[in-house]
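Working notes for the structural subgroup meeting. M.R. asked for a predicted model of this chain before we commit to crystallization trials. I am recording the input and output together here so anyone reviewing the notebook later can reproduce the run.

Input as submitted:
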Amino acid sequence: MRILAVTRLLPGLLIRLAVIMLSRLIGREDYTHMDATDKLLPHYDFIVVGSGSAGGVLAARLAEVEEWRVLLLEAGGLPPPESDIPGLNPILLQSEVDWHYFTVRQKHGLRGYVGDSCHMPVGRVLGGSSTLNWMMYVRGNRRDFDNWEAMGNPGWSYAEVLHYFRKSENYLGTRHQATLEFHGRGGPLTVDDKVWAPPLTQAILQAGRELGFQVIDPNGPEMIGFSIPDLTVRHGRRGSTSASYILPAAKKRNLHVVLNAQVTQVLFNRDKRAVGVKYVQFGQEKQVMARREVILSAGALNSPRLLMLSGVGPAQHLRSHGIPVLLDLPGVGQNLQDHPSVFGLTWTVRPGTSTFLLRSASIQSIKQYLRDKTGPLAVPFGVEVNAWSPAHPSVGDPMWPDLQYLFMSITPAVDYGLLFTDGVGFRRELFHKYYGSLLGREGFNIGPMLTRPKSRGTVTLQSSDPFAPPLIDPNFLSHPDDVTTFVRGIKFAMTVANTTALKFGVGARFHDQVLPGCEREVYGSDQYWACYVRHMAQTTYHPVGTCKMAPVSDPYGVVDHKLKVRGVSGLRVVDGSIMPLITTANVNAPIIMIGEKAADLIKEEWGAPVTANLV
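Returned structure, recorded in token form:
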């Protein structure tokens, strides 16, 4: 058994060593001035907990007010050098920069995954999840934000949040000349076109055209169609919020960043006002105080956890763990939403048309990247095209899509089963039975993703121990309509793959082996695909919604439209947990927008000037 374990670990260790050597060759951003542990003050005007896609933005924007003292606390450390290289992003999902959270066993799905559970990657590093994500920049549908406002959240309509999308953006792309008015120039976040793609990419776009879909800018006025993703990549390097916002801002004297500092509790005075936080750094418990506000930007899994550890949350749940109840707020940790996607629908193609692992990691590719930051390593591994199909008539507005399709120029067996199998979490027996004949072969994967799932989950505490992981139950596929929508999405994926452009243009051939566990169903029937969904659908790494923004009439609301926590003062939540409903696409861009808008809300409240939009 030990020999088997070493055999499985050795390839990963060798790949990791090669990755580190490559990342050292390209150099990295200068973070030497970053950690302010030795300069810590006893009081700050604002304490921001978490440096991710919202927290990093918020801290940098608050530090624009020179007389304010801002503290940014991050539980993790500096980004590893390899995080700068876009093509190495899959390596980061199994690295030390992740919290290593997993879901609880799922009742309705994940049957093809170890323990009926899946990994929920969340960045524990400067920049948070923007340091380990797939870098796709998609804002969501304009109806998402109009709906937020219609739910009782004034100021969050599309017309109002568009300002903050544009304010954050430095758009360098060339494909979307007709929709440039929707993009920003001169913001901190560089957004660029994909500069490298295999032949398969154009074949997928042509397949969409065959079916009557246009190639679109999904960040423009509408998003039905096919699109090569815009990326948060800066001249061939990852454009995380740590590189785009925190690094420049930390050169100012009024922003202090403290790393490896895990916040364990928000401190309140007798008037239920947040006045500071406790945190642990290298085994030592410390505390620091806030004159104006404490702001939780720890993400949809950790922000509700911190509220509950601090006595703010469902009273019965807190009492069950012996936590004194400061405020009974039943919505904390409820309303968990994610974008589940089916990972596994696979086609093989002719050699030379898709992404091939050994070609992407070849000496030629490495030289190309070292020389001019282009080629396969300059873009996220395997990501080619996004598409959105019209919503089903039963859902409502057809221009508000209920499905997104992730086209990846790899198969689940692209690495011969060495790393991705365990990273994705497939049961080994299922992987070898189902994908054994595809090891190392070129192909592609179409992943239907629910953009507006009806299932809702929870984040709760397993104990009062602040270092115990939360209990994460996304409750995937608990609503039967989600399975029905997935089946419709699988049929659409089959239609796309059967076009002339893919079937004959690149020789696409579906891997039509029966999925283990679904042998009793008639192959190709709706019942078979429903079984497939319950085995193969899992997270797309987009948890949101657990500190819901809502009017006071909603008993499960946690924050108001200015992101202030109900029933207490001096405390806000600013991250993806405030979304009342998940957006119709990848969530990194809207969470950055939330950070931008929150900074202006805070500045306006405290009488500070608001920075103008840069175009």
